[in-house]
Design brief:
This protein is an alpha/beta fold and 359 residues long. The protein is built from eleven helices and 13 strands.
């Protein structure tokens, strides 16, 4: 405070600079005028009054149940975002592999309207990969062969503006072209390959489940329960699975960028959901600020059952997530983070794990 006041005084602003408030312990909010208390109340109650107009508008515009859940959240004793890691941030598991000098080549896949390929490439390059920008036209026209790559990553964004449904146009450009269909089917069948799909890439890969061994029970991803595009810093929990991307991260709770309009997992039947659960194909779930799996908006921003937001195949070689770990692999990319985080945040572990998996 004193440093700020000194700076203001140095610019001639001292006469119009005043300290008007200070933080306090607890939920009490008080406003005083000339030493006399003119307003005093509980933070939660006052915030509900402040937010009511926005809630009423949101209930008319969006799913009213989601609007109510978000409004009622103001009554909760909310500790805010927090982090729980099952691994050490300074443990660079990929370092021994990077030291060998070999850099596996990964195709950073994109299609018309897709974005995020730069962040995706940056994360994999930091982990010891050689990243190559590959547009779908390169594959469709035969300029690039998937057989050349050790791994592929399908990026997020809005392929074809999502006018055909999230990721569906991208998937159909593969399914309805025999050469491209065969190329992807052969890649997925390789025991030495790795595949990651994020957001739009997650939706696209889910639509290719007939080509992916073990993905038959995967859901499709449809419009968010809130009926709106959701862009938030959300908490997810990493579950035990066969995915090498999450090796050593099981049990961790950490924030991640969420940015999608059609991320709600819709399973073909209760049996499909049960099959994914039984074979440990569910890799990520949304949790609330207390660490509990959530079906409530906005802790669960898309309304997927049980907070499901990431899946993998039984052998772990194909992994998909709706949130964007590549957008927060560096600490400075996070809109909130603990003060003691180093240059690289916890999601960097995911990309380093991929380097380890390829040996």
């Amino acid at each position: 405070l004193q440093r700020v006041l000194t700076c203001l005084a140095g610019q001639g602003l001292e006469p119009m600079s005043h300290v008007i408030g200070a933080p306090c312990v607890g939920e009490a909010v008080e406003i005083r005028v000339a030493g006399e208390s003119v307003l005093r109340g509980n933070r939660r109650e006052l915030q509900r009054v402040w937010a009511e107009t926005s809630y009423r508008l949101q209930a008319l515009r969006d799913n009213p149940d989601c609007a109510r859940e978000e409004y009622d959240r103001l009554l909760e004793q909310d500790p805010g975002l927090s982090v729980k890691l099952s691994f050490a941030l300074d443990d660079d598991v990929a370092a021994p592999y990077i030291a060998r000098g070999a850099r596996p080549v990964i195709a950073i896949l994109r299609e018309q309207g897709v974005n995020g390929q730069v962040e995706m490439a940056a994360a994999f390059m930091r982990a010891g990969f050689e990243a190559r920008d590959v547009h779908m036209t390169d594959i469709l026209e035969g300029r690039v062969r998937l057989a050349e790559f050790a791994a592929i990553a399908a990026c997020g964004g809005f392929s074809y503006g999502d006018v055909l449904g999230a990721g569906q146009g991208w998937a159909k450009s593969i399914l309805y072209n025999s050469r491209t269909r065969d190329a992807f089917a052969s890649f997925f069948a390789r025991p030495d390959s790795l595949t990651l799909g994020v957001c739009n890439g997650c939706q696209m890969l889910a639509a290719l489940r007939e080509l992916i061994p073990g993905a038959e029970s995967w859901p499709r991803f449809v419009r968010n329960r809130s009926e709106q595009f959701e862009a938030r810093l959300s908490l997810v929990k990493v579950l035990p699975s066969a995915s090498p991307f999450f090796a050593g991260m099981e049990g961790s709770i950490l924030p991640v960028a969420t940015s999608h309009g059609e991320g709600r997992a819709e399973f073909a039947s209760p049996a499909s959901l049960a099959a994914c659960q039984a074979s440990r194909q569910i890799a990520l779930r949304y949790v609330d600020n207390l660490g509990a799996v959530s079906d409530i908006h906005p802790a669960n921003p898309n309304g997927s059952p049980g907070g499901i937001t990431g899946l993998t195949t039984p052998d772990g070689r194909v992994t998909v997530t709706m949130p964007h770990p590549e957008r927060v692999h560096r600490t400075v990319q996070n809109s909130w983070h603990p003060e003691d985080w180093p240059e690289e945040g916890p999601w960097m572990r995911m990309f380093r794990n991929a380097r380890v998996a390829l040996g």
